[in-house]
Amino acid sequence: MEEVKLLGARPSPFSYRVIWALKLKGVCYEFVEENLSNKSAWLLQYNPVHKKIPVLIHGGKPIAESTIILEYIEETWPQNPLLPEDPYERAMARFWIKFGEDKNPTFFAFFQTVGEEQEKAAKESKELLGIIEELGLGDKKFFGGDKVGLTDVAFGWIAGWLQPMEEAVGVKLLEPGSFPRLHLWTQNFKEVAVIKENLPDYDEMLAYFKSLRQMFMALAKS
Amino acid sequence: MAKSDVKLIGAWASPFVMRPRIALNIKSVEYEFLEEILGSKSQLLLESNPVHKKIPVLIHGGKPICESLVIVEYIDEVWSPGPAILPSDPHDRALARFWAAYLDEKWFPAMRNIVTAKDEEARKALMDQVGEGLVLLEGAFSKCSKGKGFFGGDQIGYLDIAFGSFLGWLRALEKMNGVKLMDETKTPGLLKWADSFSSHPAVKDVFPETEKLVEFAKVLAKFKATLPK
């Protein structure tokens, strides 16, 4: 059994994606916490191109980029499949995972900007949530259907991180009345045992996001 | 499989459209190519890709699949047996996907922005970025090819397709700017690979001519100038 290590950083949602996938598959691993303001020699060696976490190291070989790590985990440990068997359904899952990644900048902008720029980002973010709800999730319980799949894991940040972000910014994006299905999904997702047991502490995240938000607001003023 | 069962909505100059075309050629799958016209989007495109309204879109048995690399993986999975496009080893697959993501998220945007760079300084900075990226990709080529002719080894594979689809535009850019971004000193492996790739039977009929792309770039620039800001 080859060794599995995960270089990550709490409370990064990207790290958690990998934690969830490994735990859903029952894979044992060692978590190595990176200090992102003082990156380890390991991280620089294992991800020289981007120098970012998470990095999975399996049998000494590194895999970087969270969504690529998710596919690697799915292929290496076939128990409890997280992707559908049907190629068309797999393509749909991958389409939505990519959609989420491509649209990260809009949500970052919501969190990092102020004034008119922030209002624009908030409006666009809500539109994206609408598209994700209507066309991605639809009437399914999970993006993966009856049970959690890779798409749910990829969108997990909406369930665990969006709320403290909204609270730190003082603007609500995911209103239950406006996005009832997506809101229900966040509740269902957080109830899954592996997810429930592996979510960062809300108050810690709120404090973290509040201090980050203050930093961005100060930057915007200067 | 009847030709009408497989349709691809695209345009000849798009590197992203080239990707599924090469994949279908590798698998010897016949398909109907539906060419979109610059400046308008067909009803079929808008209906098949309501989220992005972009090409390429593969329509197989009436069902649309969008995003070029998602389509390539789909083609690989549906038409098997047939020459494999993704490597079989999970770590090699992860490496191929990693470099394809790097190309799409970092390298190609820098290359594309050279055309609209606001001044010479900005253009030079972007060209340097593209050049540095090519050096990284030369390293990736050494590692992935394991001494063979393609990123995929003996046969062209996922990363060959992902990267190779940008070669036409790379050459057009070199011509328009009078520079050599891929050369014998810094990227000898890639230079040789580029020749092998562009003349490969699955590629050569869909590989755009440099001259045609240079002309098209002018048409595209004029068209973009007419768009509302």
Automatic annotation (TrEMBL), chain A:
The keyword Transferase applies. Residues 2-81 form the GST N-terminal domain. InterPro entries: DUF7962, Glutathione-S-Trfase_C-like, Glutathione-S-Trfase_C_sf, Glutathione_S-Trfase, Glutathione_S-Trfase_N, GST_C_Tau, Omega/Tau-like, Thioredoxin-like_sf. Its main location: cytoplasm. It holds the Pfam family GST_N. Gene3D superfamilies: 1.20.1050.10, Glutaredoxin. It catalyses: RX + glutathione = an S-substituted glutathione + a halide anion + H(+). GO terms for biological process: glutathione metabolic process. Residues 86-209 form the GST C-terminal domain. GO terms for molecular function: glutathione transferase activity. GO terms for cellular component: cytoplasm. Keywords: Cytoplasm, Transferase. It is found in: Cytoplasm, Cytosol. CDD domains: GST_C_Tau (cd03185), GST_N_Tau (cd03058). Is involved in the conjugation of reduced glutathione to a wide number of exogenous and endogenous hydrophobic electrophiles. PANTHER family: GLUTATHIONE S-TRANSFERASE, GST, SUPERFAMILY, GST DOMAIN CONTAINING, GLUTATHIONE TRANSFERASE. Belongs to the GST superfamily. This is Glutathione S-transferase.
TrEMBL record, chain B:
GO terms for cellular component: cytoplasm. It holds the Pfam family GST_N. SUPFAM superfamilies: GST C-terminal domain-like, Thioredoxin-like. Its EC number is 2.5.1.18. It is an enzyme of class 2 (transferase). One of its GO terms (molecular function) is glutathione transferase activity. It catalyses: RX + glutathione = an S-substituted glutathione + a halide anion + H(+). Residues 4-83 form the GST N-terminal domain. Keywords: Detoxification, Transferase. The keyword Transferase applies. InterPro entries: Glutathione-S-Trfase_C-like, Glutathione-S-Trfase_C_sf, Glutathione_S-Trfase, Glutathione_S-Trfase_N, GST_C, GST_C_Tau, Omega/Tau-like, Thioredoxin-like_sf. One of its GO terms (biological process) is glutathione metabolic process. This is glutathione transferase. It comes from Salix brachista.
